Amino acid sequence: MSTAMDTESTYSGYSHYSGHSKKAHRQGRDRHKSPRSKDGSRSEKSVTIQTPPAEPLLGNDASRAEEGQDDNWGETTTAITGTSEHSISQEDIARISKDLEDSVGLDCKRYLGLTVAAVLGLLVFLTPIAFILLPQILWRDDLEPCGTVCEGLFISVAFKLLILLIGTWALFFRQPKADIPRVFVFRALLLVLIFLFVFSYWLFYGVRILDTKDTNYQGIVQYAVSLVDALLFIHYLAIVLLELRQLQPMFTVKVVRSTDGESRYYSLGHLSIQRAALVVLENYYKDFTVYNPALLTASKSRAAKHMAGLKVYNVDGNNASGQSRAMIAAAARRRDSSHNELYYEEADHERRVKKRRARLVVAVEEAFTHIKRLQAEEQQKAPGEMMDPREAAQAIFPSMARALQKYLRTTRQQQYHSMESILQHLSFCITNNMTPKAFLERYLNPGPTLQYDRDRWFSKQWTLVSEEAVTSGLQDGIVFVLKCLDFSLVVNVKKIPFIKLSEEFIDPKSHKFVLRLQSETSV
Question: How does it sit in the membrane (predicted)?
């Protein structure tokens, strides 16, 4: 148990490394870091999409702690738990306040729309019942007797209302996946159509039935039945507009992540730009590999290292433009040798990754072999003395912790995997009798964002930037951008071309042939 506790204390320091010189260097760099520039010169329309709530996937401190550390961080650094340092700028405060205001506005708009839809739906279901009950309450004695046909209409109205209620629940009563910046046009048109339809029925009912106190009760019931039939047709129209219309693929969209250039292609139907953005984001979380900014720091540090090796001396009092031209010329002269450095850096990194991967695979296989040996021993013990999967995972984890730490450190994935998540995954694999290869799949290959914990999702708020109105439909050549905190998704829309197929008839007799054998053969 002491070994497991020591390993846990060492492993808990994945993103909190301490060293006085590194700490001072990081603080100095934060003080000299220039504020971001605001882009206010664009004339594009920008709206916000609120996705399911989650916390940022990475912090700036975790990415800065990655720079300048050797591979033996587990032996040469001190793990500090329970303490963290955060810095925030005036721009961050303004952005946070703006996000809060936007979220409050979106919540009010969402609840207002739900309230209007609920009130209108209640009015729709109570109207046919009111049409039937009001004559019985107001002038019951003057009504003509309801015969067999009239009583049969009661059953028809009851079952049609039940079918309409189930269909409305299945189509409209769904958990919202996101908050869109503008109203859904077809849904709003359907609400307006239903309101006008029910209002016209009530107007006719008040003028021709309530004012005249019509005594033909069977005709009144038939009038209510016609209302329910029309509502069923409107529900069918809603299914066509909201669900069926978008099923046929009409456009192909290319989604490119701005930081690393990873791209995917998707086929979409007739959708508005804001709904197409929602489809893109849903597919992004399951198709794109998780965004890792630590992998992008290598090229930046390499460029900074090249520029740091250049020294410019102002001998004859030239201005700053002359110095910049001298630095650019010197950098161009060193460009021929930089590709060799890049080649050897990548080769050395691949060698270290393969070496750490091999050590990790061997360590995990040995640990799972130990589990099988423990399972064989546990079968001979009493039922009360057997270990649960959690205890078994804690028992074998120290044997693989060091190799796993080094591999995740080399591949820069340690910020995505906490010790608790690894233990839960290990106990899950032990419970379901999974192989070492199945356990390592999560760590050897970076997966999509949904593979990781919900609190590590990168962004909860996306901003949609489009030159066209977000309620307009997709068209060929439209480009819109989805922005979050650290990267953006550039979406390019292309229409699927019209395909013309022609048929060519092949005569079945054309496949027949005659095989002629010579009478004389060579011996």
Answer: Multi-pass membrane protein
Cβ neighbourhood burial of 454 (10 Å; 0-12, 13-18, 19+): exposed
Coil/strand/helix, residue 177: coil
- For residues 403 and 390, the answer to whether their CB atoms sit within 8 Å is no
Rounded Cα distance between 320 and 327, Å, is 11
Q: Got the DSSP string for 8-39?
A: HHHHTTSS-EE-HHHHHHHHHHHHTPPPPPP-
Q: Which residues contact 370 (CB under 8 A, 6 or more apart)?
A: 396, 399
**Which residues are registered as beta bridge partners of 473?**
272
CA distance 29 to 188: 52
The single residue listed with the structure tokens 């060492």 is 10
The listed range with the strongest mean pLDDT (88-97, 273-282, 364-373) is 273-282
> 310 or 131: which carries more pLDDT confidence?
131
Helix H or strand E segment including 495 = strand 488-495
pLDDT for 173: 82
What would you report as the CA-atom Rg of the chain, rounded to the nearest whole angstrom? 35
Interstrand relation of 479-483 and 488-495 (parallel, antiparallel or unpaired): antiparallel
pTM of the model: 0.67
**Of the ranges 102-111, 295-304, 509-518, the best mean pLDDT one:** 509-518
- Give me the percent of the chain exceeding a pLDDT of 70: 66
Sign (positive or negative) of CA dihedral 229, 234, 235, 239: positive
- Number of CB atoms found within 10 A of residue 275's CB: 22
Q: Are 402 and 74 in contact (CB under 8 A)?
A: yes
Residue-level pLDDT at 45:
52
The residue count for the chain = 523
Q: What would the pLDDT profile of 14-63 be if each residue is shown by its tens digit?
A: 434 334 444 444 444 444 444 344 344 444 455 555 544 443 333 334 34
Residue with tokens 């250049």: 310
Sequence-separated (6 or more) residues with CB below 8 Å from residue 419:
8, 11, 12, 14
Q: In what side-by-side order are the strands of the sheet with 263-268? A: 45-50, 461-466, 479-483, 488-495, 251-257, 263-268
**Tokens encoding 473:** 């439909």
For residue 261, count other CB atoms closer than 10 A to its CB: 7
pLDDT of residue 203: 93
Provide CB contacts within 8 A for 250, sequence distance 6+: 268, 269, 270, 474, 495, 496
Question: What type of residue sits at position 252?
Answer: T
